[in-house]
Amino acid sequence: MSQLVILNLPKVRYLDAWELQRKLHSLRVENQIPDTLILLEHYPVITLGKFGKEENLLKTEDELNDLGIEYFHVDRGGDITYHGPGQLVGYFIFRVEGVKNFIFKIENALIKLLAEYGIESGIDIKNPGVWVGNKKIAAIGVAIKKRVSYHGFALNVNNDLTPFSFIIPCGLKDKEVTSLKEETHQDVNFEYLKYKIGLFFFKEFNFSDYRIISFSSYMEDSILEELLEVP
């Protein structure tokens, strides 16, 4: 039986989430925990992937500090992106057999979710992620070590899109960004969307069972303790 555990977390600082991923990755490599999907929001942060280019950052680090936006070089694929409140971020701590199929399943689940909101979306063969026309609504950047993934996707939901003007998103000068709020012209129920996306990933990856563990505040020790107790 393959089980999916979904960690429903509150708003978390990027470095805290990154450290949690590293610890969960080690536990998954050692088969101490099942495949785990982390769902959360971040405080404002810009991250540059390992193949990203510094020139795609259009603000100085001092300017970002003044705006209350953190900036980090990270070990995921992809180029530069922004995370902030109102954006749904998902991190996959999954055992992975084929990278292309793994990315395809992430994209497919997101496309099916967006269809539930009446949004027609698709993929761009040259550029990972999910697109509404020429506008990216979901970015994808993963890392895989020892056949276990970490990092994941960022879906624009109710977030302010202005900070994307501080970067060249994903290093693509001729592309724009959009969100569920922009496309539906209304605020989206964030917690319900979290629940729905968990179900879509559960189905897309063909798990036989799933469990949602929710936390109202971020406490790494409690998260690790509860996850290690999952049968």
Descriptive notes:
This protein has 231 residues and is an alpha/beta fold. It has a single domain (3-228), classed as Bira Bifunctional Protein, Domain 2 (BirA Bifunctional Protein, domain 2, 2-Layer Sandwich), CATH 3.30.930. The chain has 6 helices and 12 strands. Strands 1, 2, 6, 7, 8, 9, 10, 11 and 12 form a 9-stranded mixed sheet that branches. A hairpin with a 2-residue loop joins β7 and β8 (127-132). α3 (99-116) packs across α5 (190-204). The longest helix is centred in the middle third of the chain and has 18 residues, at 99-116. The radius of gyration is 17 Å and the shape is globular. It starts with a strand and ends with a helix. The mean pLDDT is 94.
How do you describe this structure in short?
This protein is of the alpha/beta class and 231 residues long. It is built from six helices and twelve strands. Strands 1, 2, 6, 7, 8, 9, 10, 11 and 12 form a nine-stranded mixed beta sheet that branches. A three-stranded mixed beta sheet has the order 4-3-5.
